[in-house]
Amino acid sequence: MKKRLLIIIWIFGAINIAAKAHTSLNGIVMDAETGRSLPGAFVVLENTKQHAVTNDLGYFSFNNAPDSILTLSISYIGYETLNIKTRAEDDLQKFTLQPTVMSLPAVNIRPELSANTALINQMDIKARPIRNAQEILQIVPGLMIAQHAGGGKAEQIFLRGFDIDHGTDIALSVDGIPVNMVSHAHGQGYADLHFIIPELIDDVDYQKGTYDASIGNFATAGAIQFNTLNTLSDNFVKLEAGQYNTFRAVAGLQLIGGNNAEQKEKAYIASAYEFSDGYFEASQNFFRFNMLGKYQNQITDTEIIRLGVSTFASEWDASGQIPERAVKQGLISRFGAIDDTEGGQTSRTNINVEHIKMLTSHSVLQTQAYYTRYQFLLFFNFTFFDQDPINGDQIRQQENRHLLGLNTSLVHDHELFNMPSKLEGGIQMRFDAIQDNELSRTLNREATLSRMSLGDVRETNVGVFLSESFRITDRLQSTIGTRMDFFRFQYEDELVAEYNPLSETKSILSPKLNMSYRLSRGIQFNLQSGLGFHSNDTRVVVAQEGLDILPRAYETEFTAITKPSDHLIATIGLWRLRLDQEFVYVGDEGIVEPSGESLRKGIDASIRYQPFQWLQMDTDVNYVLPRAIGEEDGADYIPLAPIFTSTGGVKIDVQEGFGLSLRYRYMDQRPANEDYTITADGYFLLDAAVHYRKNKIEVGFSAQNLLNEEWKEAQFATTSRLQGEPEAVTEIHYTPGSPFFARAYATWYF
Q1: Contact, 685 vs 664, CB < 8 A?
Q2: In this structure, how many other beta carbons lie within 10 angstroms of the beta carbon of residue 725?
Q3: No. of H helices and E strands in the chain?
Q4: What average pLDDT does this structure show over 288-313?
Q5: Which long-range contacts (CB under 8 A, 24 or more apart) does 286-289 make?
Q6: pLDDT digits (tens, 9 = 90+) for 630-687
Q7: What are the structural domains, with CATH classification, of the chain?
Q8: 400-453, pLDDT tens digit by residue?
Q9: Beta-strand runs (E) in 67-106
Q10: 3-state secondary structure of 179
């Protein structure tokens, strides 16, 4: 394996040596009001075939620019397009863009553009009412979520024919810090985003599929990267109140810098407090506190250092999932509970240091170090009295975790055989130390009846990636890449008398190949392919002695992007994903189960339409055919895998400060078990939001489930027994979805 890695490094090194770099025109693109750099701005050198995309420092360069008066066109979503004349020179030139209303005409189709990236994510964020950070996940077309534990537990995620549970097949990160927790007490890849304050999200980059070499573990169905604001445009205080005794307060204060574009140092602090009794008969007693502080020092135009510190804590009670028969028999209402002693608490503290420096006019080095302290405690009961007819089946899951990581990457723009090219490589290291990873049977959250598993986990992941992008012609671009991941798993079982830590090591190679062809200014085709994987729980690894514990995902996708007019853009993609056989640790039962090979085929379609500056419309439609391989026809369904989903909406913005948003969510019915004899019901929901801003005051109102539909949010085919029942029954157990839920808020900017 080491020899293969050395060969790969040598090949990319030889390519780089063959490259020739020339500096003719260097520039930085910045926000005119705050002075912050704008990564991802599209820069065109008019009357030539040259174009560039600004890097993470907002920097761009052109090689061999004509020695004459040049016209640059610089565009970025949310800013006025800048057309300016200049001359080629080695000195760094600064270009500032004026903020404006989000506009679809600013979106350019170009070979660097992948259909699976967040092409217009900032428009989507502005167009959609966001009640919490987890709901921002639904910006990804085809992604749906479900909450089933009083709002404190991480949501269940569905994407590309996967019931991802709480994060097993989607890689999530915030400011480069991984969110997914390996070998988590509740399940592999558990991803709780509630430590984010939604008002502080700057942008969201998403990618469906396994096509990016810089993203490793869990990125089978896709990956989402959240970035928070590095500076506040205004100080603010926001108060929000709603039904069911719901209250929320958020405040942000700029400590250094403010809107002074010349100020190199900037710092702010923000916090949020929230509580709610919820719409269930038993009060949810939900509480959450968040805080985030950020400091940025732009040492020079080509060097930035950032420090971020955040913390959050949450507690809640939950009514849990209820069986259909209990509601039909009148034992409880749909908002009632069989066991209302469920609930939990969790906390997370992050420390994050980032350093970005341009080594040369064509090379950017990024380094990041982070530390996370994480705690989790959960009580729940989904089988009621099936295992223990006397005390009930309540279980406790908990863990205490330290997470450390170090990432470094180098991006180098150069020419290869007279082709503009970009070389990107990096190393990512992560170490998880988990103490007292526990699963126990309990009574009323107090008495411990028996311990099913208890142990300490040590897990190390080192990833190395390399990729090279070639602009073969002005219309054709190709990216070839690969990554190598090394894992060391160690588990010490605290329920055995003797000290006998078990350990395994494993590595995996994941090549990628992507092609983009721009047929015309308004039509582009992308062909993407790659191998990905998700690691298994350390307890699975040691139980299987290292066999079948890094299941591969093989994915290919063909996508067409078209922009027939400045006001309309549409994408349609056909994809195929096969996942290898694996063994899964069932955190709710403390056992290892096989999960067979599977195949998913799907069609994704997205449309964004902005006929007027004040009117935006969008719709996303997703169809998937998920099947287990090797099973008999009719018994090969994948439980809870979504088949047909759609989201969309309309947003109206009037210049006087008035805005209105109406959005829908639809999920079709789907199988709840392997032979489709039990069905998880579908639903159609409408949400609405309205706001008005004048000067420094903004007020707003939102309504969730506008039509007050009775719907089932989280659904499972579960075997349970109620107290007094002679035998257990297998049927749908569900968490009722929110009824009509109104909230109002007021924000003061200063």
Answers
A1: yes
A2: 14
A3: 4, 43
A4: 95
A5: 286/150, 286/151, 286/152, 286/314, 286/315, 286/316, 286/317, 287/314, 287/315, 287/316, 288/152, 288/194, 288/312, 288/313, 288/314, 289/313, 289/314
A6: 899 999 999 999 999 999 999 998 877 898 999 999 999 999 999 999 999 999 999 9
A7: 2-100 (2.60.40.1120), 121-749 (2.40.170.20)
A8: 999 999 999 999 988 888 888 899 999 999 999 999 999 999 999 999 999 999
A9: 70-75, 82-86, 89-97
A10: coil
Residue type, 299: I
Name the 3-class secondary structure at 301: coil
Residue 688: how many CA atoms within 13 Å on its side-chain side? 9
Q: Cβ distance 416 to 470 under 8 Å?
A: yes
User: What does the alpha-carbon distance between residue 356 and residue 333 come to, in Å, rounded to a whole number?
Assistant: 56
Q: How many residues does the chain have?
A: 750
Count CB neighbours of 643 within 10 A. 19
Q: Tell me, what amino acid is at 132?
A: N
Residue with tokens 């009775």: 710
Q: How many C-beta atoms lie closer than 10 Å to residue 729's C-beta? A: 14
DSSP secondary structure string, 527-551? EEEEEEE-PPPHHHHHHTTTTT-S-
- Specify the residue for token string 């990804």: 140
457 neighbors 538 (Cβ within 8 angstroms): yes
Give CA–CA dist 211/559, Å, rounded: 13
Closest to 704 in 3D by CA, of 667, 728, 733, 738: 738
372 backbone dihedrals φ, ψ, rounded to 5°: -130, 135
Contact of 719 with 131, CB cutoff 8 Å: no
Distance from C-alpha of 321 to C-alpha of 337, rounded to nearest angstrom: 8
DSSP 632: P
Tell me the residue type at 382: F
Residue type, 293: G
What is the distance, to the nearest Å, from the Cα of residue 311 to the centroid of all Cα atoms in its chain?
Answer: 19
Structure tokens, 152: 């404190």
Q: What are phi and psi of 712, to 5 degrees?
A: -105, 120
Whose CA is closest to 341, among 442, 224, 481?
A: 442
pLDDT at 18: 42
C-alpha–C-alpha distance, residues 253 and 91, integer Å: 36
C-alpha to C-alpha distance for 219 and 556, rounded to whole angstroms? 14
Q: Are 284 and 277 in contact (CB under 8 A)?
A: yes
Q: How many CB atoms sit inside 10 A of residue 96's CB?
A: 17
> Cα angle at 274 between 272 and 278, to 5 degrees?
160
Structure tokens at 382: 């989904």
CA-CA-CA-CA torsion sign (119, 123, 127, 130): positive
pTM: 0.92
Non-local CB neighbours of 646 within 8 Å, separated by 6+ positions: 619, 620, 621, 622, 664, 665, 666
